[in-house]
Amino acid sequence: MEKKLLLGDEAIALGAIHAGIRGVYAYPGTPSTEITEYIQRHPLARERGLHSTWCTNEKTAVEAALGVSYAGGRVIACMKHVGLNVAADAFVNSAITGVNGGMIVIVADDPSMHSSQNEQDSRFYGKFSLMPVLEPSTQQEAYDMMEYGFELSEREKLPVLMRIVMRLAHSRAAVTVKDSASDVQALPCAKDPASWVLLPANSRRKYAALVEQQPRLEELAAKAPYTRYEPSDKKKPMGILACGIGYNYVEEVKEAKSCFNVLKITQYPLPVSLVRQLAEDSNGILVVEDGQPFAEELVKGMLSADYPVKGRLTGDLPRTGELTPDSVATAMGHQPVRFFEMPKEVVSRPPALCQGCGHRDVYTALNEVVKDYPNARVFADIGCYTLGALPPFRAIDTCLDMGASITMAKGAADAGVFPAIAVIGDSTFTHSGMTGLLDAVNDKAQITVIISDNLTTAMTGGQDSAGTNKFEAICLGLGVEPEHVRVVVPLPKNMEEITRILREEIEYKGVSVVIPRRECIQTLNRKLKQKRAEKKS
Amino acid sequence: MKQDIILSGVGGQGILSIATIIGEAATQAGLTLKQAEVHGMSQRGGDVQSNLRLADGPIASDLITAGTADMILSLEPMEALRYLPYLDKEGWVITSSSPFKNIPNYPADEDWSAALKALPHVVMVDVEALAREHAMPKCANVILLGAAARFLNILTVEQLRGSVARIFAAKGEAVVEMNQRAFDIGHDAALVE
Questions:
Q1: pLDDT tens for residues A323-347?
Q2: Domain A228-331, CATH
Q3: Using CA atoms, how far apart are residues A503 and A475, in angstroms rounded to an integer?
Q4: Do domains A2-222 and A358-523 have the same CATH topology?
Q5: What is the ipTM of this complex?
Q6: Domain segments of chain A: what residues?
Q7: What SS3 state is found at B8?
Q8: pLDDT given at position B14
Q9: Which residue on chain A is closest to B23 by alpha carbon?
Q10: Does A336 touch chain B (CB under 8 A)?
């Protein structure tokens, strides 16, 4: 055993390696990216040849992971919360097929939307799919739960969802870890079409079995090693049901242990037996959970209508945003004292596109061209270039989800918008843009698609991008006319050429693609730095 | 004993390197630590902060409670002011006095400096100027750490100085020496303040 200082993400990664995974399948997304990056860097992962290259999107990741499980290996798939929407088809149905080798799907939620467009709570997906859900409260539990989660998955023959939040993913603490990885023998490859072919006849039987399995899953959640009930010595005090990281904020209040009955939840389905016990011993329950009021609604349903249940729905905790020690202490009746206020001179400092970034030149050119088209609309997408919405550019009109730039532009063009321009990054294009481009080609939609190619997945820190060097071929393959696939280099000195090409392609009555291509300034600087360091040594 | 520190600055300034050095020193000293970091979108020139908690016992929350931080350690003066609601009444603000003006509505110099000077426990060091003066442009963050060293009660100045050496060891003796010098320059600058 040794102690290591690890981010929550890194603790999960090391836990997975030590639990004998065959590989990780993932698409980058804050706050989940560091799980896969840690495995990519780990010597043991290299030595054992574990799969760790990035997938094209979260759906291909979960499907490939299920394939590894089918073949008998242990495997994890990782993504951010909105990535689970993309993977949902595979994810939900994998609870019906069940698994062979242990499979844990790790999903990192982002309450407060630090780097996301919503704060959906992945525990709903677990309940919806009837899958066991793990929710660690500390980096140590995150590490320990990997081995436990694989055993649970293999015993119950189900995939397991591990839900973490940004604050655990990106917080560092000392974790006691094993010295080496378990030698897990792969199970024999599955050969059972009646389980794995989801024809209605098979699905009905499997789904009924999954429903029947639920009471046992709930019993397992009640006995989960990191779930515990800590009654106070007081008679009928207030009760607290604390989920995952919420427990830490409760513990931070000095009076927590002596003045409250505390039920710590780390596994779902939410065990009704423990909730009823807490209710019986207490004069009311405060539900402390990071994310949406998932447990709070369930607790209300488990108790009589007049039993006092407090939480985010009642306003005792803020309805939106991540939990903080301040909001939890206040809900517990111990509002923290502030000694200094933030002076009114302090203003917000939003993030911005880097100096020297190619997206800047793309937006400069686009703004110049769009000036001549008062009805133009620019449909953008998810990535660094979403920052084009902010001053000085204010260059984009929409951003919805991965890939929606092309499809929203197409729909708008169908409805008469001209020019309808899509701006999408290289990695986002291969993630979810290609299918939409095919729709546009088949309908001969009059749209111009700008694939702003910086040769990397930049927003999440510069991971490999699945389509690098393939974009012209992909566009041609999908049926875009060769003379309307144009490549430019986004630099100030090329402004005249770029604006001319944009004008030409906007006027073309069909699908055109302009690919401004120049390496991300961050990855370029990193490479130059590395080269200099190599030269020195 | 505990020491709760809010590190703040602008994305790219190097607050995480300061956290790494303090964290290493704390681990060597057998202390417990939790460090909440900011990754992702906000790193692109936006305001960034990290909560670093050190203690000689267990630490529950990854985040610091309002009114309990023992120190705000900031690479940017306006960013130091942003986190004042977290500062304990006896807490220290150790900050760079070189503003990073990448926004059009940055407050007037006399306003932010008056707000800082009004605090009971504050040390302002022009770490950027010192870094330029001593020809160590990349060491502004280590200079600031040096300035904070004697106010970090849970660790000694020597423990921190040792950590600077270990953290930069892989980059060669010259880099170690320069960073230790930067640390000393910061330490001495805070004595004058």
A1: 999 999 999 999 999 999 999 999 9
A2: 3.40.50.920
A3: 20
A4: yes
A5: 0.94
A6: 2-222, 228-331, 358-523
A7: strand
A8: 86
A9: A5
A10: yes
Phi/psi at A423 (nearest 5 deg)? -120, 120
pLDDT surpassing 90 at residue B44: no
What domains sit in chain B, N to C, each tagged with a CATH number? 2-192 (3.40.920.10)
Instruction: List chain A residues with CB under 8 Å of B87.
Output: 339-340
Which member of B43, B84, B105 has the closest CB to residue A342?
A: B84
Question: Is the Cβ–Cβ distance between B29 and B155 less than 8 Å?
Answer: yes
Question: Nearest-CA neighbor of A419 among A503, A497, A485?
Answer: A503
Q: CA nearest A32: which of A92, A91, A110, A102?
A: A110
pTM here is: 0.96
Hey, which residues 8-37 in chain B have their CB within 8 Å of chain A? 10-11, 23, 27, 32-37
According to CATH, the topology of domain A358-523 is Rossmann fold (3.40.50)
Asked whether A22 and A186 are in contact (CB, 8 A), the reply is yes
Residues in chain B: 193
CATH architecture of A2-222: 3-Layer(aba) Sandwich (3.40)
* Residue A347 sits at the chain B interface (C-beta within 8 Å): yes
pLDDT tens-digit series, residues A359-398: 999 999 999 999 999 999 999 999 999 999 999 999 999 9
Chain B residues with CB inside 8 Å of A326's CB? 65-66
| Residue A453 DSSP class | B
